[in-house]
Specification:
This protein has 15 helices and 14 strands. The protein is an alpha/beta fold and 450 residues long. The N and C termini lie far apart (63 Å).
């Protein structure tokens, strides 16, 4: 069996068979459980608005959306029996095809809800994976989403894998396919084999990215992160002039894009735009996108874009920091500049009393749309990089031309003295990551340090 045979064995249908077989979009209902005693930084109104946005981003006809109060989570159906009966009646009356539940459902809860309501059920994780499946534009993105999708479904083999099938080149990953029964053990084996294959392919991606980062090692990396729809891609475009897809759409960007950014005093950095984060981002998805997110791990500075016009921005910022912590990134390891975006949408005094999320190197209010604050942001990036560096005056003999080349390649040459008989003096700024190599190479030739 070659590597694509396994793909054929699993993917024999269309990812959107459940939707495309109809002339009209699938009729869907949105349920947002409000569990008593379940602490959340997000208000129930903010949670509902976000889940409505997620549900509406994949071309469904949202017939109704409502909050369901849950005193205690039921092992069989998550929500109480009375709510299930009411929901089943409404699903039947309004001809609902798909039920979206803003919770992490177990396989049993999902199956029982489907049995009781007669509609297909997607929980929060499945919906996010479905959205990512539609948004994935590159081969790498498709691989990453498929891996997350299969890991999520591996323990949920309670019915046919035909409802997860997709055609090559199509978007989505078909959580909304047709029903059926197949041999679970055979399916589980095929899924496991496919997961191994995807992990091998993504390992190659990881090695390729590592080589690319090695080629850029002498240029500082600034990673742009933020909650989905915080305006990261618009900010990226405004800073670099790139044409990255930017739209008022959840998860508009899945694939990391890197462009050179010239700072005010001539220094260049590599700015990377990354996938947006969201509350309760599936662990499998974070793991699958780790190859992409390694740009964040290697960053010299992180720009944390916050949609300051969103009433829920404080809770969103907390979610972003949580994902960064899961990746092993913290303000202690990497300076974080908070970029308060969309200030054109709020009154001038709206920023008063706002506080950064955790320890930050700086806070810069900007508008990616009007350009306000962007020059200040560039200066702040430059200043933060400089603060992580030390300045040295080093003397280089005329015979050591390679050392001069090393300085230009690995340090910032601030000034150069007039040459004399012994050689030339240079005032250079050396970043922390090159400091050990600098001190070893120029040991005994450093006149002073600042």
């Amino acid at each position: 069996m070659n590597e694509d045979d396994g793909e054929e064995a699993i993917h024999r249908g269309g990812p959107k068979a459940f939707i495309d077989q109809r002339a009209q979009p699938a009729r869907a209902a949105v349920i947002v459980p409000d569990v008593r005693g379940q602490g959340s930084l997000h208000s129930i109104e903010a949670r509902k608005a976000e889940f409505d946005g997620l549900a509406g981003s994949i071309g469904l006809d949202i017939v109704f959306s409502e909050v369901v109060r849950v005193r205690e989570v039921k092992p069989a159906t998550f929500i109480g029996g009375g709510h299930v009966e009411t929901l089943a009646a409404r699903v039947k009356a309004e001809d609902i095809d798909l039920l979206l539940v803003d919770a992490a459902l177990s396989a049993i809860q999902q199956r029982n809800l489907e049995r009781e309501t007669g509609a297909k059920v997607l929980d929060r994780t499945a919906l996010i994976l479905e959205i990512f499946g539609e948004r994935a534009a590159t081969r790498e993105g498709v691989l990453q989403v498929e891996l997350a999708h299969l890991n999520y479904q591996k323990g949920r083999l309670v019915r046919s894998w035909t409802h997860l099938e997709r055609q090559r080149g199509s978007g989505g990953f078909g959580f909304m396919g047709g029903p059926g029964e197949t041999q679970i053990e055979s399916d589980r084996r095929q899924i496991t084999e496919r997961i191994v294959l995807l992990e091998e392919r993504l390992d190659k991606v990881k090695k390729t990215r590592a080589q690319q980062r090695q080629q850029r090692k002498d240029t500082p990396i600034v990673a742009l992160v933020g909650y989905t729809n915080a305006g990261k891609s618009s900010l990226f475009n405004a800073l670099t002039g790139a044409g990255v897809f930017a739209k008022d759409l959840l998860f508009a960007t899945l694939d990391t894009t890197i462009r050179k950014l010239e700072l005010p005093h001539g220094r260049a950095v590599m700015l990377s735009d990354t996938v947006g984060f969201v509350a309760d981002l599936p662990t499998d998805l974070v793991a699958a996108f780790r190859a992409t997110l390694e740009e964040v791990l290697d960053a010299d500075i992180i720009l944390h874009a916050r949609d300051i016009a969103n009433p829920d921005h404080a809770a969103q910022a907390g979610d972003v920091l949580k994902v960064l912590a899961e990746l092993g990134v913290s303000p202690e390891t990497t300076p974080i500049i908070e970029v308060w975006n969309k200030i054109d949408l709020v009154p001038e005094d709206a920023l008063l009393g706002q506080v950064p999320a955790g320890k930050v190197a700086a806070v810069v209010p900007v508008s990616a749309v009007t350009g306000q604050g962007l020059e200040t942001l560039k200066l702040t990036i430059e200043k933060t990089l400089a603060e992580r560096s030390r300045t040295y005056h080093v003397h280089v003999p005329h015979s050591a031309g390679a050392d001069i080349g090393w300085l230009h390649a690995h340090a910032e040459v601030i000034s150069r003295d007039e040459p004399n008989e012994a050689g030339t003096g240079f005032m250079v700024r050396v970043e922390a990551r090159h400091l050990a190599a600098f001190l070893e190479r120029f040991n005994g030739r450093i006149d002073r340090a600042e």
